[in-house]
Amino acid sequence: MTGQQTKSPIEGLIFDFDGVIVDSVQLKVDAFLEMYRGQPPEILQAVEHYQRYHGGISRSRKFAYFEAELLGRPANEARIADLSERYARLVEEKVVASPLIAGAEEFLTRYAKDIPCYVISGTPERELQRIADRRGLTPYFKRLMGFPTSKERGIELFLEDGPFPRDRVAMIGDAMTDHDAAVATGVAFVGVTAPGVPHFFPESTRTVQDLTELAGALNLG
Known about the structure:
This protein is α/β, with parallel strands linked by helices. It folds into two domains: 12-23 and 99-217, Rossmann fold, CATH 3.40.50.1000; 26-97. 45% of the residues lie in helices and 13% in strands. The protein contains nine helices and six strands. It has helices at 25-35, 41-53, 59-70, 77-97, 104-111, 125-134, 151-161, 176-185, 214-217; strands spanning 12-15, 117-124, 143-147, 169-173, 188-192, 207-208. It has a six-stranded parallel sheet with strand order 3-2-1-4-5-6. α6 (125-134) links the parallel β2 and β3. α1 runs antiparallel to α4 and α7 packs across α8. The longest helix is centred in the middle third of the chain and has 21 residues, at 77-97. The protein is globular and about 50 Å long.
């Protein structure tokens, strides 16, 4: 043995939050369905499909789509703001109380001290940071960004923060929004695909069921 340490293949990690750090995807699906309770089954099915496919975009964009495209109703700023506020009241306490994704705490405890970790989420930024604080997660991350910063812009800002070479950064996400942002910015992607939950990643996508498998997927020592 030479005593020399092999350099990690990863210099920066960027995480989505819901479904990647916190097991809160289903509760957010349920909250959107609650918001549209009483609508026909085909509308509720479309709401659920859109939420699962576009999990990483802001709730305001989702409500604008639901109102205008699914229901043919005016999607004005006041209406969207009201829906978003009502939704926030439904979900924040539940996200605070929900369990972490299996392996998340162990992974962050083991690696966050050596590899800078970031969060970019579709959740409004103040709400995201408040939830992370209340859960004791903030110390693991150099920065936590949410709406209105887009996923692509957040990744670019984090790359500048190092600065990190794109080929040594990975995005960890559970939605096509995360996948597409990683592709657009030229960073690696690992998809989190919970058992029994549909996902839409291309077949070639590197995936893990939870964060107990992440170190192996990233070839971390």
